[in-house]
Amino acid sequence: MSSQQDNRQTNLTRGIRVEIASFVYNVIEVVVSVTVGLLTGSAALVSWGLDSTVEATSAATLIWRLKGEKNGADKRTVLHRKKVALYVVACAFWIVVAAILYEAVSAFISQEAPGFNWWGIAILFVSLVVNPLLAWGKYRYGKRLDSPALKYDAKDTLICEYQTVVVLAGIGLTQWMGWWWADPVAALLIVPYVAWEAFEATKDARSVDPDEAEATADA
């Protein structure tokens, strides 16, 4: 029993490290992409950056939740942290949906093609490499800890990978084909995925009952 507990503590520590790496990287994504997106007028890049705020929020809440268990929190506290974390992530998702719609509609109204900046392209290409590694780490320790929340976060990171490809395609079509509308369209293609994740996170948060301390499912 002690060996199993030690093994779980080790996996909790490693899971926390993966989420810390995810948090730091996503903060960098947000700063670079939103700054460049606002300077160049790219709705797709701004929307992608705003979605990274959800990734950062998710990472922060999972660090909080995993540290609670690692430090010996009781089952009720762990479930409470899971519920709070899911609601925080859900709210962040809904805010991002509203922000993306605003940016895209504004771009359609102005009908101005965004400018070009290598910093924006660079962060997108770096993400194509970093995100699969983060997703693999999250899923690996989510499976070892039997943690749906970690595996759910891994899926979110893979969705971000898809979004990165969409944004790169939108910027490419805008710059090399002269299609000004490709950028806001790329932004709008992100909305259904973000909205679905918002819905799922909200539903999951409602299903958690901290008073059922004897529940066997881990966050």
Structural write-up:
- This protein has 6 helices and no strands.
- With 219 residues, it is mainly alpha-helical.
- The chain has one domain: Up-down Bundle (Alpha-lytic protease prodomain-like), CATH 1.20.1510.10.
- The longest helix has 39 residues, at 2-40.
- The protein is elongated and about 65 Å long.
- The model has no long low-confidence stretch (mean pLDDT 81).
Roughly what is the average pLDDT, rounded to an integer?
Answer: 81
Q: How many structural domains can be distinguished in the coordinates? A: 1
Form type = elongated
Question: What is the first-to-last residue Cα distance?
Answer: 21 Å
Q: What is the gyration radius calculated from CA atoms?
A: 19 Å
The top-level CATH class is Mainly Alpha
What is the fold-level CATH name, i.e. the topology? Alpha-lytic protease prodomain-like
Please describe the biggest sheet, giving its number of strands, its sense, and whether it closes into a barrel. none
Identify the CATH architecture: Up-down Bundle
User: Structural class from helices and strands?
Assistant: mainly alpha
User: Helices and strands, in N-to-C order?
Assistant: HHHHHH
Helical residue percent band: over 70%
The parts where pLDDT drops under 50 for at least 5 residues are none
**By CATH's scheme, which homologous superfamily applies?**
Cation efflux protein transmembrane domain
* Portion in strands: under 5%
**Strand element count:** 0
Keywords: Cytoplasmic vesicle, Endosome, Membrane, Synapse, Transmembrane, Transmembrane helix, Zinc
Protein name: Cation diffusion facilitator family transporter
Subcellular location: Cytoplasmic vesicle, Secretory vesicle, Synaptic vesicle membrane; Early endosome membrane
Main location: membrane
